[in-house]
């Protein structure tokens, strides 16, 4: 940067002198201009005086007093929820947005309740229509399932078994025995071990 | 066994913050240990009241550490916490409407006329630099001279010459344009020079 002849040092140039060694151009100016030289000297003295001020410390229990008011996050808590909550309450704008959304939800719910109370007949008519339609759909489903079962190839064998009471009793007994055996086996499998495991204490 | 300082000594502020975020209380204490003195010193020189400076420093740390999740690691932690501290001090000074001495007028004044028109007078309750010079206490005189600066100038000069912060960082901390920071520091030095001129006589 070149300076016009006769002008004094700018604030940036004086500052450059305080930070380090001045450039040859600034040095030449300082050699000729006693006013700028005096200014640099005084500014340097002021900077040194301010920098030499003692660094005072707060009271010894300062950290404890701060920590008593700081909420340390629980490492086992759901971090994303914590972060969301902090973000919501971080600025007045985000807090206002969250509060607005909550008010909107509450308003919608309140409006819904009020409308329902004032339109009970409409709701009752809608309920009976839905009940009738639902019942019809269920009945159609049951009918479809029954006709499907009747068309299965094993349905004839099952029907003949039901016609003979002795054979039905034998099959029922076999089925019950298989069910009970399975239940006992499962219970044994899930039972806690009775002996100590050697490495459990490690 | 390594002591607490050697345990944390090799970690950057950002790494300590990450540990604090994961719920380590010792990381919070390390951040307090690193910054309690510079933050307190800045606030003490801003408000010139030890008890008040402690309260503001406590408020600064509580606010910063409770909002540690909102700290963005791409910025320097020191800039972030100094910004919170400076805001706390400036807010307090504005609330209290401290009488301040300015030889240059409003910091926003662009022309010499505007500066002259907005120049403030020495407040009645203000401890004048001249009184302090009579007491022949250099340190007190400097403290008083700094205390007589406008809060904006005070922040700039303290961050620059006590904390050794770069101009760019000061601009970030104070949320001011770089040119304004340079102007404030230049004006603050001029005011200090005039305030302390009696010392040389």
Strand-helix topology:
The complex is a heterodimer of chains A (202) and B (201).
Chain A: H1 11-19, H2 24-32, H3 34-51, H4 62-67, H5 79-90, H6 92-118, H7 120-150, H8 155-163, H9 165-190
Helix pairs in contact in A: 1-3, 2-3, 5-6
Chain B: H1 4-9, H2 13-21, H3 25-47, H4 50-66, H5 77-96, H6 112-118, H7 129-134, H8 138-147, H9 151-162, H10 167-174, H11 178-195, H12 197-200
Helix pairs in contact in B: 2-3, 3-4, 3-5, 4-5, 5-10, 9-11, 10-11
What would you say this structure looks like, in words?
- The complex is a heterodimer of chains A (202) and B (201).
- Chain A has 202 residues and is an all-alpha fold.
- Chain A has nine helices and no strands.
- Chain A has a domain at 11-51.
- Chain A has helices spanning 11-19, 24-32, 34-51, 62-67, 79-90, 92-118, 120-150, 155-163, 165-190.
- In chain A, helix 1 (11-19) crosses helix 3 (34-51), helix 2 (24-32) crosses helix 3 and helix 5 (79-90) packs across helix 6.
- The two termini of chain A are 73 Å apart.
- In chain A, 5% of the residues are buried.
- Mean pLDDT of chain A is 83; it is low at 194-202.
- In chain B, helix 4 packs across helix 5 and helix 9 crosses helix 11 (178-195).
- Chain B is mainly alpha-helical.
- Chains A and B meet through helix 1, helix 3, helix 4 and helix 5 of A and helix 3, helix 4, helix 8, helix 9 and helix 11 of B.
């Amino acid at each position: 940067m070149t300076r016009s002849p006769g002008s004094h040092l700018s604030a940036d140039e004086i500052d450059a002198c305080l930070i380090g060694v001045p450039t040859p151009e600034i040095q030449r100016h300082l050699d000729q201009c006693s006013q700028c030289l005096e200014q640099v000297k005084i500014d340097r003295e002021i900077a040194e005086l301010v920098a030499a001020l003692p660094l005072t410390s707060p009271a010894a229990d300062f950290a404890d007093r701060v920590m008593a008011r700081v909420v340390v996050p629980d490492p086992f808590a759901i971090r994303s929820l914590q972060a969301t909550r902090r973000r919501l309450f971080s600025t007045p704008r985000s807090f206002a947005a969250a509060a607005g959304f909550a008010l909107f939800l509450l308003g919608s719910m309140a409006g819904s309740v009020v409308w329902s109370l004032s339109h009970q007949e409409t709701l009752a008519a809608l309920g009976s229509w839905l009940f009738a339609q639902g019942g019809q759909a269920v009945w159609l489903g049951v009918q479809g399932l029954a006709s499907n079962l009747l068309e299965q190839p094993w349905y004839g064998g099952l029907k003949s078994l039901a016609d003979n009471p002795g054979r039905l009793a034998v099959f029922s007994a076999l089925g019950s025995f298989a069910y009970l055996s399975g239940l006992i086996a499962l219970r044994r499998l899930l039972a806690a071990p009775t002996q100590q495991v050697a490495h459990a204490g490690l | 066994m390594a002591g607490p300082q050697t345990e944390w000594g090799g970690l950057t502020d950002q790494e300590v913050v990450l540990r604090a975020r994961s719920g380590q209380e010792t990381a919070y204490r390390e951040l307090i240990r690193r910054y309690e003195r510079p933050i307190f010193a800045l606030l003490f020189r801003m408000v010139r009241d030890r008890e008040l400076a402690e309260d503001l420093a406590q408020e600064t740390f509580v606010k910063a550490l409770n909002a540690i999740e909102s700290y963005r690691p791409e910025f320097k932690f020191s800039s972030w916490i100094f910004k919170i501290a400076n805001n706390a001090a400036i807010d307090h000074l504005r609330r209290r409407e401290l009488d301040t001495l300015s030889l240059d007028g409003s910091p926003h004044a662009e022309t010499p006329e505007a500066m002259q028109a907005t120049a403030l007078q020495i407040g009645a309750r203000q401890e004048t630099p001249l009184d302090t010079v009579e007491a022949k206490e250099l340190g007190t005189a400097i403290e008083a001279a700094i205390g007589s600066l406008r809060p904006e100038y005070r922040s700039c000069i303290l961050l620059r010459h006590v904390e050794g912060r770069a101009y760019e960082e000061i601009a970030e901390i104070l949320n001011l344009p770089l040119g304004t920071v340079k102007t404030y520091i230049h004006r603050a030095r001029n005011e200090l020079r005039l305030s302390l001129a009696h010392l040389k006589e």
